[in-house]
Design brief:
The chain is of the alpha+beta class. It has five helices and ten strands. Strand 4, helix 2 and strand 5 form a beta-alpha-beta unit. The radius of gyration is 15 Å and the shape is globular.
Length: about 180
């Protein structure tokens, strides 16, 4: 299991726009503007097969369920090369979304241009934007990793989301996410 860290896109970066197909509906296309939340937006790069994603997906879904009703937009994107990694195919993305009860879109970045625009490098990779679409958090969910014995809490990401929702300061000293590297073409 390879460990790749986030690149840590500079804070204040404007959210790159996109127009991607939602694999949950298989017929709808969305832009960032279509999906952004009233108070902020969380963009998460994930994939179907990564053990780091499997380790955190239940907490990610809980975070989405806890915060979307409070005005946070949640967007999941997969950018992996499906030719060499067919377990990340759009059809299996649909299954993964339903198996994990996603109440948010799971978009497919076939060209990988969106992952590059966000400077995403791993799965999971978290990007939190404020209501002005400026990056205010990029980093880890928490200190838990597969096999390290630290229970999932989502503390780091939840603290940043609370900062967005309740207009609190967010610690600029942020730890990178660690996960499987995005599978580039």
């Amino acid at each position: 299991m390879a460990r790749t860290a986030s690149n840590m896109l500079p804070l204040g970066t404007k959210a790159p726009d996109f127009y991607l197909k939602d694999q949950k509906s298989a017929s709808q296309w969305f832009s960032f503007a279509d999906l952004k939340g009233e108070k902020g937006t969380l963009v998460v790069f994930i994939c179907n097969h990564c053990p780091f994603v499997h380790h955190v997906i239940e907490e990610v879904v809980m975070i989405a369920n806890d915060y979307r009703v409070q005005g946070l937009g949640i967007i999941a994107i997969s950018s992996n090369d499906v030719v060499n990694y067919p377990q990340d195919s759009p059809e299996l993305m649909t299954e993964f979304a339903f198996e994990n009860n996603f109440e948010f879109p799971y978009l497919y970045d076939e060209s990988q241009a969106i992952a590059k625009a966000y400077d995403a490098t791993c799965t999971p990779d978290f990007f939190l934007f404020d209501n002005q679409d400026k990056l205010i958090y990029r980093g880890q969910l928490d200190d838990s990793r597969p096999g390290n014995g630290i229970p999932l809490s989502g503390n780091d990401l939840r603290g940043a989301i609370d900062g967005v929702l309740y207009n609190r300061s967010i610690n600029p000293d942020q730890k990178p996410s660690i996960g499987c590297g995005i599978k580039w073409k």
